[in-house]
Hints:
This protein is about 45% helix and about 10% strand. The protein contains 13 helices and 7 strands.
Amino acid sequence: MSFKGTLDSLSVTDVMQLVxxxxxxxxxxxxxxxxxxxxxxxxxxxxxxASSTSxxxxxxxxxxxxxxxTRAQLEVxxxxxxxxxxxxxxxxxxxxxxxxxxxxxxxxxxISEIFFxxxxxxxxxxxxxxxxxxxxxxxxxxxxxxxxxxxxxxxLDEWSLIEKVFPSQxxxxxxxxxxxxxxxxxxxxxxxxxTLIDGKRTVREICALSPSTNFEVCKxxxxxxxxxxxxxxxxxxxxxxxxxxxxxxxTPVALVLVAEGFAAQVREHFTRIVGPIAEILxxxxxxSLGVALDVLPLERIEELLTLLCNEVDVPxxxxxxxxxxxxxxxx
Length: 331
């Protein structure tokens, strides 16, 4: 059984339930118009693993968010994976950095978050390839599609509350003075999020800069708003709409733009490092920025470089890319 379609005619949950009810084994490929792509692997109707082109969905990022891995340990495991060809999860277990149980919990969370991100996609295409396997060396879990849908539906209910305050991820938010007295008690993650709120960034830009999922970031922004510490900037200019790679975005004349030909150099150097997947990742980066690379304001170059370097597994290569593109933007 192989089939394909579009998400405006059949939802992700409907497609997943169909595969689960038929007890099929294979892989569901889902592609968003922005270029972001995700894969969900099934074995006899149960989800066993998933992958995504989004850096936030990677296993290492999940382990860091769960407090099971440091950034330094992540870089070491990535280097070992590239050197030996052994999967990152196996490297971490073999070195005793995490236990197999901890790895399975991280994989279960990774699958859950990829699944939920798909549930809020209403545009894109899907195709199921029966018999396609993730490979024998991939750590597997056994996740019920029904359980994931139930959990995802709960998150969708919370998402509806978020959208009442932030109707679009392109709204600009700013810190506000709390009315009245009283102490403010925030979690460490909320304090970290505050450092990203400068009164100019949109919710989308803040999500891109945070290592947490978009859902987690928006929940924390909602908490800050309810606490009277955050306000939606009604006077902020409307955020630019993300453009396709061939398009242009109207930019105020007062802004200083990156050098002419900068976008071409980004594609050249980035493709040389990450390979053919570069175009998909660059489309995702442009969507996060909300502006095409060839009309990027110079003041936002560091934001772009952070997004690009997050997609490079080898630290030395990431730093080289940062140096080269920083010079290219200003030349």
